[in-house]
Structures are given as structure tokens and as C-alpha cells.
Specification:
The chain contains seven helices and no strands. With 200 residues, the protein is an all-alpha fold. The protein has one domain. The longest helix is centred in the first third of the chain and has 39 residues. Keywords: Membrane, Transmembrane, Transmembrane helix. This is CNNM transmembrane domain-containing protein. It comes from Caldinitratiruptor microaerophilus.
């Protein structure tokens, strides 16, 4: 009995370690690719890409909050009408813990890390441009502080707004993502939500 409980206690540590290793290699790889891409892009193109990275982190954070606050009953009537996206919405709610962990702790944190690294890369380009023939000089420190601060403010502010929306209208957020997943499956032919796990 004691050994069984001990085994169960070790499961969270094992899962946490696997997630940490996964996040490390994923973040390192994506960060390297994003910095490489940013360094080869003009600032005018790199800035929208940076905003997209921040937006992805905010959107997934909103989804992670919404699935933990949403309830199933409102979707049962939609399921009876066989509305597109209902099965996906119910799956998101019934797997709220896993979805929230993936959205908030994996995608959200990776997006934040990559956003900061990308901001630093853009800051170097801006400093080189401002410094001209004299080199980046003091511009590099100033541009880095401004870029990283801007990304942090957009990320934190965006997540705060997203959480407020997700807590006020969790069903609408989940419903939107459910329909988006349904559209993605019908368009690509790929299966994101297994059918046999959407029902109890």
C-alpha cells in the first residue's frame, strides 16, 4: 500500500521532468530558428513576426484559462443539434487540465521566451542602423532595454486582458476554438480530436 502511494507521488515528478526536457529542447530549437530568421529579416518584417509570436502566447494563455472555467451543459444542446465544433469544444473542457498545461505552461512560456530572444535580435539590428558607420555603441543597450520592455509589457498586458475575457466568457472562447479545430480537421483531413474520446 505504501509503495503504491509512493509510486503515485512520483508520477507528478516524472511528468514534470518530461515536460521540462521537452520544453528545453523545443524552446532551444525554436529560439535558434527564430533568431536566425529575425537576423536575416528587415526590421519592418521582423516586428510583425515578433508581434505574432506574442499574440500566439496570449491566445493560448486565454484558451488555457477558458477551458478550466467553462462548463459542459451549454454545449449539450449544441451537440444535440450536431453543430460543427461542439465535439471539439466538449473534448477541450473534458481534458481541461491537459489543455491548460499545454497552453499555459508549454506554448505560453515558450512563446514568451522566444519573444524575448527575438526582441533582443531586433534590438541589435536597430542599434546597427542607428549607429551607422560608428557601430551600435550605446544604441545597443538602449534599444535592447526598449525592445525587451515593450515585449514584456505587451505579453503581460495581453495575457491580463485575455484572462479577463476568458473568465467572463469562457464558453465563447472554447466554442470559438472548437469551431476552429473543426474547420482545421475538415480542411486538412488531419485528426486533432479523437472521436472515441469525446463521449463518456
Amino acid at each position: 500500500m505504501a509503495s503504491g502511494n509512493g509510486g503515485r507521488r512520483s508520477d507528478p515528478w516524472s511528468r514534470g521532468l518530461r515536460v521540462a526536457v521537452l520544453v528545453f529542447f523545443t524552446a532551444a530549437g525554436i529560439s535558434w530558428l527564430s533568431q536566425k530568421a529575425m537576423s536575416d529579416l528587415h526590421v519592418a518584417l521582423a516586428l510583425p513576426l515578433l508581434l505574432l509570436i506574442v499574440g500566439v502566447g496570449v491566445a493560448f494563455d486565454m484558451l488555457g484559462t477558458a477551458v478550466t472555467a467553462a462548463e459542459e451543459p451549454p454545449f449539450h444542446a449544441r451537440a444535440a443539434k450536431k453543430l460543427p465544433g461542439t465535439r471539439h469544444s466538449l473534448w477541450l473542457i473534458r481534458n481541461a487540465a491537459a489543455v491548460a498545461n499545454f497552453s499555459n505552461d508549454i506554448v505560453g512560456d515558450i512563446a514568451g521566451t522566444i519573444g524575448g530572444a527575438a526582441a533582443a535580435t531586433i534590438a541589435v539590428q536597430v542599434a546597427l542602423w542607428l549607429g551607422g558607420d560608428r557601430g551600435p555603441g550605446a544604441w545597443q543597450e538602449l534599444s535592447t532595454i526598449v525592445a525587451v520592455g515593450l515585449v514584456a509589457s505587451l505579453t503581460i498586458g495581453g495575457k491580463a486582458l485575455g484572462k479577463e475575457i476568458a473568465l467572463r466568457r469562457p464558453g465563447d472562447v472554447v466554442w470559438f476554438v472548437g469551431r476552429l479545430l473543426d474547420w482545421f480537421e475538415r480542411t486538412t483531413g488531419l485528426t486533432v480530436v479523437p472521436r472515441n474520446r469525446s463521449r463518456r
